[in-house]
Amino acid sequence: MLHRLGLAIIGAVLVITSGLAPVTASAASWNSGYVALGDSFAAGTGVGDASGPCLASSSAYPELLSTRAVSVACSGATSASLTAQIAAANDLSPAASDQGGRTLFRASQVTLTLGGNDVGWLSVLRSCLAPSPSCGAATQASALAISSQPARTAAAVQQLRLAAPHARILVTGYPKLFDPAAATCTVAPGLAIQSAALAPLDQLALGLNRAISAGVTAAGDPNVEYVDVTDEFEGHGLCRGADAWINPLIILGVDPVTSAPVISPASFHPNAAGERAYADALRPAL
Q: Comparing C-alpha atoms, which of 121, 123, 104, 118 is closest to residue 212?
């Protein structure tokens, strides 16, 4: 009964949430001209102090990489959000001239984590963790969207290059969320799911990573690099209990009007250790 109730809760709460010369740089260079763009994984939404309209944390990986990071990463961002994020980054610096004072124009390194929202990851979680008859359709829709991700990523890289002509651009992938090591995985206190149902979701994430990497290659820019993070997270998916660097499902309470459970947006996102893992993966890329 508890298992069925837990699955029903997941189904309910997930509906609610939503040709430049190579740059030579040392670790210290992260403190000079670094701009971060992207979605909730770059904003640090899974860390306890995340706040504001973008659910951003002071312990997100951009802030770990540089004490002077300019981060405009925002929860819910898609590839369509990139134009607004570029404008927001440039607005953070007074323009001494038409271009000279713009943050991105002066940037020496840029990071981008983007794509999860493009491919309907939330819809897959909602449909397949419940589970529901729509799991197959949601997975197929996400796989179709992933097939178009190389073009979206290539376009994003080219757009960033126009805005940041001098920067080394690092584009990240995503970790496997679950990484099961036993027959069942505890995705929330008192709620275990068969690992066999989670393995395809991790494979979907790996497919997205391959698509993002292909997009970076297709952009044809020698000063842009794809940074894989799966090795950094190996053995630290949310199924790994105390060793997890991914948050489990976190239920905040019950909506007093609808009586529906309310999920924390931190659910299924990297925690503070996960953000450190992102920083560790990115830091040597320069």
A: 118
At CA 270, angle to CA 93 and CA 137, rounded to 5? Answer: 105
**Banded pLDDT at 276 (limits 50, 70, 90):** very high
Q: Where are the domains of the chain?
A: 2-9+30-285
User: Are the C-beta atoms of 37 and 111 separated by less than 8 Å?
Assistant: yes
Task: Please tell me the predicted confidence (pLDDT) of residue 6.
Answer: 46
Pick among 3.40.50.1110, 3.40.50.1260, 3.20.20.140, 3.40.190.10: CATH of 2-9+30-285: 3.40.50.1110
C-beta separation of 204 from 142 below 8 A: yes
Which three-class secondary structure state does DSSP give residue 185? Answer: strand
- Which segments within the chain are labelled E, that is strand? 34-38, 70-71, 109-113, 168-172, 184-188, 191-194, 224-227, 251-254, 261-263
